[in-house]
Amino acid sequence: MSTPRAANPFARRLPGRATPDDLRKMAWAPSYRAPRACDFANLPAVELPDVSGEERELLDAILADVEADEPRLRYAGFVGSDRIRAEVLGNVTRTASLDEAFAPWSARDLVYRRGFAEGMSLAGRSFISLGSHLVRLTPLRELRLVAVAPFLNELAACPHLGRIESLDLRGNHLEAAGVRELAASPHLHRLTHLNLATNSLAADGVRELLHAPWRGRLRGLNVADNNLDPAAVDRLLEEPAFADMVELDLSHNRLGPSLAEKLPRTAIVCLLKKLSLAGNGIGPGGASAFFAADRLNTLTDLDLSFNGISPAGAFALADAESFRAARVLDLGFNDLEDTGAEALASAGNLFHLRELNLRANRIGPRGAKALGESANLAAVAKLDLAANHLGDAGAVALLTGDGLEGLRELDLSNNGITAAGVRRLIACGGLRGLELLSLAHNPIGRNAAGLIRAGGDFTGTLLL
């Protein structure tokens, strides 16, 4: 019988019960899945780098005006333009790095702009304990925090939170009490984007958010998967402080058709560029009501996946007079079938579309042929048709039509395409111009990659 693992003393200990030494250690391995207490026995002392002299002055100038190019160019001249990225990378990783054994809890997902790390993911304990040093080394503006729920009161009190413009707290189970702590923070005066997805907010969490004095600065808000009821969403949509919102995610709250019917009538929709209503069960009726509105002219990115809008919803979209600015459209998992694909192919309002997701819509050869011949979709560069019913005939029809002139990335995984279909695509030149092609989970045989490469028309990335 296996020996049970020792309980992790840091897993659910609240800040008030933890000693200063506990918290120092948690800053280096700060997760609900953190190592056991005995794993900390030989942990090296925390050494935080800093800079001084002329370099300190140059960094301070960058931190004072993160948009300006001139301070960054001066810093590049100081460290040597060929070394700036390495220098900054070294500073950031030394600040938040761990021993190799603790690598899963170190700074991750570093986002670099003009030589400096402006975005990263950290555990909550790391940012609270080390963040004041970190923000002196790089103009950090975008932050994702994990394992932060027990420390929300400390996080809200952190002065270095005042540097953050985009805060991602998804999946932390903050609940309404956590949002209350966050709302009371005096340091979120720069915050413009907030991700609270999957935090069990419910109606009380929305109420706390609407009391936040900094809410009027928000331009992007994600409250997906929070068990919100229609009344809570109505309060959010009718909040005057949100009238300048440009990104909104209400997905996976199971709000039904009423959401799609009410949303276009609220002030919040007037400036929206990016909207996700995925997984709300709006159905064909909700889709028809949504696309009948005359206030959709600013939307450039729309996600209606997992809504069962059916072919009727596709026809409503194709007839929408005000929906003409779309660049990204996700209609995956909507039972569109061939009829819905034909409706989209005939839509005269999708000329600007660059990305189209039609994954898992039971589209067959007829629908694929309509898409492949559509001049209305000539600007589409990325098309996802995975998990449909194209088969060999549909794949060939899609890629030999005279439409889709701009197509560069195509996902045809799980479509029943065979080796014979691959040979037909090669013979007709259907792969010419593609930069990425996925044929994963198709019965195409082991030699498919060799056949495609030998054909000479396809030189891009191939996923099998």
TrEMBL record:
GO terms for cellular component: cytosol; perinuclear region of cytoplasm. One of its GO terms (molecular function) is small GTPase binding. SMART domains: LRR_RI (SM00368). It comes from the Bacteria. Signal peptide: none annotated. One of its GO terms (biological process) is nucleocytoplasmic transport. InterPro entries: Leu-rich_rpt, LRR_dom_sf, RanGap. Keywords: GTPase activation, Leucine-rich repeat, Repeat. Gene3D superfamilies: Ribonuclease Inhibitor. This is TIGR02996 domain-containing protein. It comes from Limnoglobus roseus.
